[in-house]
Design brief:
alpha+beta, Dna Ligase, domain 1, D-amino Acid Aminotransferase, Chain A, domain 1, 3 domains, four-stranded mixed β-sheet
C-alpha cells in the first residue's frame, strides 16, 4: 500500500512521536509498503519518501525531558495549514492509508482526526469523537465511572481562575495526591504532592493560562497497563517503579523502570484487568477498528483503578504497546500490519 505516516506535531510528545514515526516506517517498509514520512508541523513537512523496501530510515531518540515548545503556536499554524490545503493534503488524499503516529495535543485530542474525516482520508486508530472523549482525563474518568469502571475520586481545577477548591484542600489533607495536567500524555508534568505549598509551586509551574490540573488520591499499589487491539486485550504489563509516579523520564529512558510482560499475577487477576481494559475501550466509544491502552493502579487494598485510556499510545522501541504485542507473540511489524488492517477492513 501507499502509506503516509504522520508524526511529530505540536505537543510536548513531539520527540516521542518522531521516534514512533520512524519506527513505524521501518516496519512498514519491511512489510513491503511504500512509505512517506510527514511531520505536518515542520517547516519542510516531508521528512522522507517515497521510501520502498530496502531504504534506510534513521532512528530518532527521546530526551529525558519533553521539548519546551516555546514556538508551539507556530507549530500549530504550520500543522493546520499543512492539513487543510496544499501539497501535504494532496499527499494525504493520494495515499491508500494514513498511519497516525502522532501523540498528544492536536494529534490525540481529535483535531487531526476531524480534519482527516472532513477531507475523506482513511487513517489508523480511533475517530475524532473517541479521541476527544479519551483525551480530557476528567471527562474520560466521568464516562468510565458512569459505565461502572472503578475510578478514583478526582477534582479538576484551573489554577489561574480561582483559589484552591475545598475539595482539593480536602484531598491534599488526606494525602498524598497526584497532580497532573488534565489534557496531556506521556506522563508529562505528573507530580506526587504531599502539601498545599508543594501544590502551589506545581500549579505555578504547569498551571499557567488556561491549563487545567487534575488532582486525585495517590494510589500506593501496583501499576499495570493493558492494550486493546480491535477486540483483543493483549497480555497485562506490570510497571515496576523506582519512582513515586511513572513520569516522562521514567517512561522513555531504557532501564529507568522494569516493565514485566506478562505480569506476574494470578490468572484471574490478569483476566480481570483485561476485561476492564475492554470495557474502558468500549465505554469511550472505541470500536473494533481502533486500538487503545488502558492504565491501572491499585489502591491500598489491591483493587485496580482505571487511570486513563490512551487513544494513540506510543510506538517507540521502548513503548508499552509493542511490548504487549511481543507478549502476545507478535513481532513489531506484525503489530503495525494489524493496526493497518483494522483501518482498512
Amino acid at each position: 500500500m501507499r502509506v503516509v505516516i504522520l508524526c511529530g506535531g505540536e505537543s510536548p510528545e513531539r520527540d516521542v512521536s518522531l521516534a514512533s514515526g520512524r519506527s513505524v516506517a521501518r516496519a512498514l517498509l519491511e512489510q513491503g509498503h511504500e512509505v512517506v514520512l510527514v511531520d505536518p508541523a515542520a517547516a519542510l513537512p516531508v521528512l522522507a519518501g517515497p521510501l520502498r523496501r530496502g531504504d534506510a530510515v534513521d532512528a530518532a531518540g527521546v530526551g529525558k525531558e519533553p521539548p519546551s515548545l516555546t514556538d508551539r503556536q507556530q507549530l500549530r499554524r504550520r500543522m493546520h495549514t499543512a492539513l487543510t490545503g496544499g501539497p501535504v493534503l494532496e499527499l494525504l488524499r493520494g495515499a491508500e492509508l494514513v498511519f497516525l503516529a502522532l501523540h498528544g495535543g492536536w494529534g490525540e485530542d481529535g483535531h487531526v482526526q476531524a480534519l482527516l474525516e472532513m477531507a475523506d482520508v482513511r487513517f489508523t486508530g480511533a475517530g475524532s469523537a473517541e479521541c476527544a472523549a479519551a483525551w480530557h482525563k476528567g471527562r474520560a474518568q466521568a464516562l468510565l465511572g458512569a459505565a461502572g469502571l472503578p475510578v478514583a475520586e478526582r477534582v479538576v481545577w484551573r489554577p489561574g481562575a480561582r483559589e484552591v477548591p475545598q475539595d482539593v484542600v480536602r484531598l491534599v489533607a488526606a494525602g498524598p495526591v497526584v497532580a497532573k495536567p488534565v489534557a496531556d500524555g506521556s506522563s508529562v508534568s505528573v507530580h506526587r504532592v504531599d502539601s498545599l505549598s508543594q501544590l502551589a509551586r506545581i500549579a505555578a509551574e504547569v498551571g499557567a493560562g488556561d491549563t487545567e490540573l487534575m488532582v486525585e488520591p495517590f494510589l500506593p499499589g501496583r501499576e499495570f497497563t493493558v492494550a486493546v487491539v480491535g477486540d483483543q486485550a493483549l497480555p497485562v504489563i506490570e510497571i515496576e517503579l523506582t519512582t513515586p509516579v511513572f513520569d516522562y523520564a521514567a517512561k522513555y529512558q531504557p532501564g529507568a523502570v522494569s516493565e514485566v510482560c506478562p505480569a506476574r499475577v494470578p490468572d484471574d487477576f490478569a483476566s480481570r484487568l483485561q476485561e476492564l481494559a475492554l470495557r474502558a475501550h468500549r465505554a469511550l466509544g472505541f470500536g473494533s477498528g481502533s486500538y487503545s491502552r488502558a492504565d491501572f493502579r491499585c489502591d491500598a487494598g489491591g483493587d485496580p483503578m482505571c487511570l486513563e485510556v490512551n487513544a494513540l499510545p506510543g510506538l517507540t522501541a521502548t513503548s508499552l504497546l509493542p511490548l504487549a504485542a511481543t507478549g502476545a507473540g507478535w513481532t513489531y511489524p506484525d503489530l503495525m500490519q494489524r493496526i493497518m488492517n483494522l483501518a482498512t477492513r
